[in-house]
Amino acid sequence: MPPHDAQPYSHPFRRATLAARKPTRFDLRPDEDQRAAIAADLGLIALRSVALTGELRPTGRQDYVLEAQLRAAAVQACVVTNDPVTTRIDEPVLRRYLAGWQAPEGLEVEMPEDDSAEPLTDVIDAGAVLVEALALALPPWPRSDGATGPDEAITAAPPGAEPLGDERPKPFAGLADLLKGRGPEGA
């Protein structure tokens, strides 16, 4: 078993071996064991398929751009019923590796508008990009068909009583108005 902080899937490109003027194309398709490791790392029931297809190309004197398409079929547990929910993902992935990139400093930092920028290092790991992009693309609260969740109205009341709804007045709704009408003496 790999150490906890180890990547479940890695496909490194050493910057020194990349072509300086033309793109390096890739088609990453983790095998069954690698998909199982990614699924375990992301808390999935299964990862039926995953692929990251694209290119890593030089821009400017030192920078690189990774542009790809992520396709996957992932199985997650429904947050309400725990039933398996299959999600199909097909979305673009963009990362810009900049030689002059610097992390924002200070206690209060504004988020940059371009969240695709990263520092350029000696190794660009397209496998790590695949795992990160997949993690970001997965639905955070998967639900099976017919499962109700926190964003849907659920009402409860004792037997024989009608549950309170938005259209019925609340018991303390007029209390603030009564307190405002009392005056400074409290009489």
Low-confidence region ranges: none
Q: Count every helix, treating DSSP H or I runs of 4 or more residues as helices.
A: 3
Number of strands: 7
Please indicate the percent range of residues in DSSP E strands (runs of 2 or more).
Answer: 25-35%
End-to-end gap? 75 Å
The oligomeric status of these chains comes to: single chain
Question: Nearest-angstrom radius of gyration?
Answer: 26 Å
State the shape.
elongated
Q: What share of residues is helical? A: 10-25%
Round the mean pLDDT to the nearest integer and report it: 82
Question: Major sheet, described briefly?
Answer: 5 strands, mixed
Strand order of the largest sheet: 2-3-4-5-6
Supply the helix-strand structural class.
alpha+beta
Name the helix and strand elements from N-terminus to C-terminus, one letter apiece. EEHEEEEEHH
Brief overview, please?
This protein is α+β, with helices and mostly antiparallel strands. It has helices spanning 32-42, 126-137, 175-180; strands at 12-14, 24-28, 46-59, 63-77, 84-98, 117-119, 123-125.
